[in-house]
Amino acid sequence: MVTLFQFLPQKVRHLSSLILLCLSFWMIFTPIADAQNCFEKGIEQTQKGHYHQAYLSFSEAIEQGKQIKAAYSNRCLVSLHLAQYQQAYQDCTLALQDKPRQPAVYINRGLALYHLGRSLDAIADYTTAIQLNPNAYSAYYNRGLAYTALSQPITAISDYDQAVQKINNLAPDQLSTIYNDRGLAYLNLGNFTTAMLNFNQAIQLDHHNALALYNRGCACSKHKNYQQAIADFSEVLKHNPHHGEAYINRAIIHQHLGYFQAAFNDYRSGVQYLPNQDEQILNIMQKLRKTLAQFETTIG
C-alpha cells in the first residue's frame, strides 16, 4: 500500500511583482548648460533602462543646478527601479515641496511608501493623486495593491474595477496585470468562479503573464482541477525554468495523483530555487525515494 505524504502548502502570489510606475519627464531650460546636459542624459538613460547611470546623471544635475527641480522627481523614478525606496521617498517629497500639484509624483512616492511597508501612507498619496487626476488608473491600481496588503480585498477590488475602467485599451499587458491582481482579491474572498474569470482574462490579454498562469494553477489545484493546474504550472516553467514554486506545486499534484517519479523529479528541480525550504523538501524527497523503492520491489 502506498502512503500519501503530507503536502507542502500551496503558495499563491498575493501581490503582483509588477507595479505600474507612473513615468514622467519634464524638460526645464536653465542657463547652467552642464546641469541641463546631465538632466537630458539622465532622461535618455532612463528610457534605455540604464537606471544606475541615470541616477548618477540626475544626481549630477541636482548638484550643479539646484533649480532643476524635475531632476528630483526623475531621480525618484529611477530609485524605484533600483529598489532604493527611502531615497525615492525623499526625492519625491522634495519635488512636491517645490510643485505640490503633481499626481505622477504622488503616485511614485506612494510606491516608495508601499515598499517601505507604509501602506496607509501610500494610500493617502494615491488618493491625493486621484483627486488631482481622477483618470489616473495607475493610482487606483496601486491603491488596490496597498489595500490588498492591508487584507482589505473588497476595497481593493473596488479600486481594481476603477483601474480597469480608466486604463487605455492600448496597454493590454498592464490591463492583464490588473485582472490578475483582481483575481487574487476574489480568491482571497473565496470567490473561486470570479477569480478564475479574472485569471482567464489576464491570460487572454497576455499569454506570457506567468503570474496569472501560476495563480490560476494554484486555484485549479485547490479546487482539484489537477490536469489544468499541471498544464498551467508547466506553462509557467516554459517561461521561467527557475520558478521553484511552480516545480513544487506541480510536484504536490503529481504526488497526490500517485506519479511519484514525476513528483520526485519536480521536487529535485524546485529545491534548487527555493533554498529556504531545502530541509522540508529534502525530507519529502527522502520519503519518496523509499516509496519508489518499495513500489519497484513490489512490482519485481
TrEMBL record:
| Signal peptide start and end residues | 1-35
Q: Which domain of life is it from?
A: Bacteria
Q: Does the keyword Signal apply?
A: yes
An example GO CC term for this entry is: cell outer membrane
Asked whether the UniProt record includes Ligase among its keywords, one would answer no
The TPR repeat ranges on this chain:
103-136, 176-209, 210-243
The alphabetized UniProt keywords are:
Repeat, Signal, TPR repeat
- What SMART domains does the database record attribute to this sequence? TPR
List the protein's name.
Uncharacterized protein
Native source species: Aphanothece hegewaldii CCALA 016
Organismal lineage: Bacteria, Bacillati, Cyanobacteriota, Cyanophyceae, Oscillatoriophycideae
